[in-house]
Design goal:
This protein has 402 residues and is an alpha/beta fold. The chain is 35% helix and 26% strand.
Length: 402
């Protein structure tokens, strides 16, 4: 295995220009969630050149599952997401987005290119007779970033389609701009937050701003409600729990001299455990209901998003062992990934899974965060990702077969 992995680094480096070309093409032509038609076609065209791979299209809209089967044996999955964000790019790159207001600001272009590279090397291993027995499913998933009219992202549709019913374990890599290129960040257990978005409408009775006593002022009620919302995490949730509540939008009225009929507050609540998640929702409902104390009423809509991402400990160890063998000079950091959400969590709820964060930042250069209009990544990370994915797949097949 060690000799194979030594050569694997060279093989991954040998296709670096292809990886860069793929990533830059995807970066230039980003598509939003559930709109990844051309992205999907590009991925399929790349996969069709590989021998031994069968392609299933049209999952969750534009999703692809590419299957590489080498006799009977364990079934594993490697996953990448393909969608972009509604962000206007400001990087000034020569290959910047050509789609106004749409940008790959979360590294999904690199995720897709990396998984394509891993598929190529693993297909070569299959042809050479060096791939362990079993089946690898390459999941090119749409719609990680946003939901459809049913409130669902892409991962639940992959589960609903049954493409993961026979899968025993799944792995994913995510770009990590706060770590230097090639470094790995891993975490066992809860690693990213659950996400529930809320829209709270506080209703009153509007009127002339010069006669506030003749109204039930929803702006005044909203001011008290905001205090309740912001105090919820610090005064209602166990300090040892991991939770966040943020308001992203407040809207009410259109004139300086008119008290409106209603004010709408939009925000998000996040947690690392189901217990805290449920408590956040219960406390949010209680705060919203306090509008009645001031003579108003309310409507509260909560859109339940993905659960917290919970990484399997044995698969985290597999990531670590693979990285140490391939890249002994690179650092491995063990820490949760933050309060962002990741719909790979749906897959991790169904079967043992682990997402690792792969450093893509520069040592002596400012590294903008994910979801920034100036987000960039060091493309030297691409061969790292390919080698990690490929070696991890070999190790996982061999481990599952025991």
């Amino acid at each position: 295995m060690l000799d194979y992995e030594k050569k694997l680094k060279e093989r991954a480096e040998a296709i670096k220009q292809d990886l860069i070309d793929w990533r830059r093409y995807l970066h230039q032509f980003p598509e939003l969630s559930f709109q990844e038609e051309k992205t999907s076609a590009f991925v399929a065209a790349c996969l069709e050149k590989l021998q031994g791979i069968e392609i299933q299209r049209g999952i969750a809209g534009h999703g692809i599952v590419a299957v590489l089967k080498n006799d009977d044996g364990p079934v594993i999955a490697l996953r990448a997401d393909m969608d972009a964000l509604p962000i206007q790019e400001t990087t000034g790159l020569s290959f910047a987005s050509t789609h106004d207001g749409v940008m790959h600001a979360c590294g999904h272009d690199a995720h897709t290119a990396t998984l394509l590279g891993a598929a190529q090397l693993l297909a070569e291993d299959f042809q050479a007779g060096s791939l362990p027995r079993g089946t690898i499913k390459f999941l090119f998933q749409p719609a990680e970033e946003d939901t459809d009219v049913h409130g669902l992202t892409g991962a639940p549709y992959f589960l609903e389609a049954g493409v993961l019913d026979d899968v025993e374990a799944a792995l994913a890599l995510h770009m990590c701009p706060w770590r230097q290129t090639g470094d790995l960040q891993v975490n066992t257990g809860p690693s990213m937050a659950s996400i529930d978005n809320f829209e709270l409408t506080i209703k009153g009775e509007g009127g002339h701003a010069g006669y506030p006593h003749q109204t039930i002022d929803p702006v005044w009620i909203a001011a008290h409600t905001l205090q309740g919302l912001y105090g919820l995490v610090s005064r209602k949730i166990d300090p040892l729990g991991v939770a966040a509540l943020s308001v992203g939008s407040i809207h009410g009225g259109a004139a300086f001299n008119v008290i409106p009929d209603q004010v709408t507050i939009k925000g998000t609540v996040r947690a690392y455990t189901d217990k805290v998640r449920r408590q956040l929702i219960e406390e949010l409902e209680a705060v919203a209901a306090s509008a009645r104390l001031f003579g108003g009423s309310h409507q509260l809509h909560i859109e339940k998003g993905e659960p917290a991402l919970c990484n399997d400990g044995k698969l985290v160890e597999l990531w670590k062992d693979t990285a140490r063998t391939l890249f002994p000079d690179q650092k491995i950091h063990e820490a949760p990934y933050g309060m962002g959400g990741e719909d790979f969590s749906h897959i991790a709820r169904k079967l043992p899974s682990a997402m690792a964060f792969l450093g893509c930042g520069w040592k002596d250069k400012e590294n903008p965060p994910l979801h920034s209009p100036c987000f960039t990544l060091n493309e030297e990370v691409l061969p790292y990702g390919v080698a990690l994915f490929t070696a991890a797949a070999h190790r996982l097949l061999q481990r599952q077969e025991r």
